[in-house]
Amino acid sequence: MAYETTHSPEHFHALITEESPVLVYFFSDGCPPCKSLSPRIGELMNRFPHLIWTKIDPAVFPQIAAQNMVFTVPIVTVFLRGKEIYKSSRFVDLEKIEMILTASEE
Known about the structure:
This protein has 106 residues and is of the alpha/beta class. The protein has four helices and five strands; from the N terminus they run E-H-E-H-E-H-E-E-H. The protein has a single domain, classed as Glutaredoxin (3-Layer(aba) Sandwich), CATH 3.40.30. It has a five-stranded mixed β-sheet, covered by helices on one side. The radius of gyration is 12 Å and the shape is globular.
Protein backbone atom coordinates (compact mmCIF):
# COMPACT_ATOMS: atom_id res chain seq x y z
CA MET A 1 0.00 0.00 0.00
CA ALA A 2 1.40 3.35 -0.95
CA TYR A 3 0.31 5.40 2.05
CA GLU A 4 1.60 8.93 1.97
CA THR A 5 1.30 11.41 4.82
CA THR A 6 -0.02 14.78 3.73
CA HIS A 7 2.27 17.59 4.92
CA SER A 8 0.56 20.68 3.51
CA PRO A 9 -2.28 21.81 1.25
CA GLU A 10 0.23 22.06 -1.60
CA HIS A 11 1.38 18.49 -1.00
CA PHE A 12 -2.26 17.36 -0.94
CA HIS A 13 -2.90 19.04 -4.29
CA ALA A 14 0.17 17.35 -5.78
CA LEU A 15 -1.09 13.96 -4.55
CA ILE A 16 -4.59 14.22 -5.97
CA THR A 17 -3.36 15.29 -9.40
CA GLU A 18 -1.63 11.94 -9.95
CA GLU A 19 -2.42 10.01 -13.14
CA SER A 20 -3.65 7.04 -11.08
CA PRO A 21 -6.57 7.12 -8.65
CA VAL A 22 -5.80 8.51 -5.19
CA LEU A 23 -7.93 7.62 -2.17
CA VAL A 24 -8.32 10.29 0.52
CA TYR A 25 -9.70 9.29 3.91
CA PHE A 26 -11.00 12.20 6.01
CA PHE A 27 -11.11 11.15 9.65
CA SER A 28 -10.88 12.32 13.25
CA ASP A 29 -9.17 10.63 16.17
CA GLY A 30 -12.25 11.29 18.33
CA CYS A 31 -14.64 9.61 15.88
CA PRO A 32 -15.60 6.01 16.84
CA PRO A 33 -16.76 5.08 13.30
CA CYS A 34 -13.46 6.44 11.95
CA LYS A 35 -11.50 4.21 14.34
CA SER A 36 -13.29 1.10 13.11
CA LEU A 37 -13.06 2.15 9.45
CA SER A 38 -9.32 2.96 9.44
CA PRO A 39 -8.04 -0.64 9.46
CA ARG A 40 -10.60 -1.62 6.82
CA ILE A 41 -9.38 1.19 4.56
CA GLY A 42 -5.83 -0.09 5.08
CA GLU A 43 -6.87 -3.63 4.17
CA LEU A 44 -8.62 -2.38 1.03
CA MET A 45 -5.60 -0.38 -0.06
CA ASN A 46 -3.36 -3.43 0.50
CA ARG A 47 -5.13 -4.87 -2.55
CA PHE A 48 -3.96 -1.83 -4.54
CA PRO A 49 -0.32 -1.52 -3.48
CA HIS A 50 0.61 0.70 -6.42
CA LEU A 51 -2.06 3.34 -5.65
CA ILE A 52 -1.48 6.28 -3.33
CA TRP A 53 -3.75 6.97 -0.41
CA THR A 54 -3.67 9.47 2.43
CA LYS A 55 -5.54 10.40 5.59
CA ILE A 56 -6.61 13.96 6.39
CA ASP A 57 -7.79 15.18 9.78
CA PRO A 58 -9.98 18.24 9.13
CA ALA A 59 -8.87 19.72 12.47
CA VAL A 60 -5.25 19.67 11.26
CA PHE A 61 -5.97 20.83 7.69
CA PRO A 62 -9.22 22.84 7.81
CA GLN A 63 -8.45 24.49 4.45
CA ILE A 64 -8.24 21.08 2.72
CA ALA A 65 -11.49 20.02 4.39
CA ALA A 66 -13.23 23.23 3.33
CA GLN A 67 -12.01 22.98 -0.26
CA ASN A 68 -13.39 19.45 -0.41
CA MET A 69 -16.69 20.23 1.32
CA VAL A 70 -15.93 17.99 4.28
CA PHE A 71 -18.37 18.82 7.07
CA THR A 72 -18.48 15.45 8.82
CA VAL A 73 -16.28 12.38 9.12
CA PRO A 74 -15.62 9.70 8.03
CA ILE A 75 -15.50 10.55 4.35
CA VAL A 76 -13.68 8.64 1.64
CA THR A 77 -13.00 10.42 -1.63
CA VAL A 78 -11.34 9.08 -4.76
CA PHE A 79 -9.57 11.54 -7.06
CA LEU A 80 -8.29 10.97 -10.56
CA ARG A 81 -6.07 13.62 -12.17
CA GLY A 82 -7.30 16.22 -9.68
CA LYS A 83 -11.01 15.50 -10.19
CA GLU A 84 -13.21 13.95 -7.56
CA ILE A 85 -14.68 10.79 -9.09
CA TYR A 86 -16.31 9.36 -5.96
CA LYS A 87 -17.23 10.50 -2.46
CA SER A 88 -18.85 8.52 0.33
CA SER A 89 -19.62 9.88 3.77
CA ARG A 90 -20.67 8.39 7.08
CA PHE A 91 -21.68 4.94 5.79
CA VAL A 92 -18.71 4.20 3.56
CA ASP A 93 -19.29 1.46 0.98
CA LEU A 94 -15.88 -0.25 0.67
CA GLU A 95 -17.12 -2.67 -2.00
CA LYS A 96 -18.15 0.24 -4.21
CA ILE A 97 -14.79 1.93 -3.64
CA GLU A 98 -13.01 -1.29 -4.60
CA MET A 99 -15.05 -1.49 -7.81
CA ILE A 100 -14.18 2.14 -8.66
CA LEU A 101 -10.48 1.63 -8.00
CA THR A 102 -10.47 -1.56 -10.09
CA ALA A 103 -12.38 0.06 -12.97
CA SER A 104 -10.18 3.15 -13.01
CA GLU A 105 -7.08 0.99 -13.42
CA GLU A 106 -8.35 -0.52 -16.67
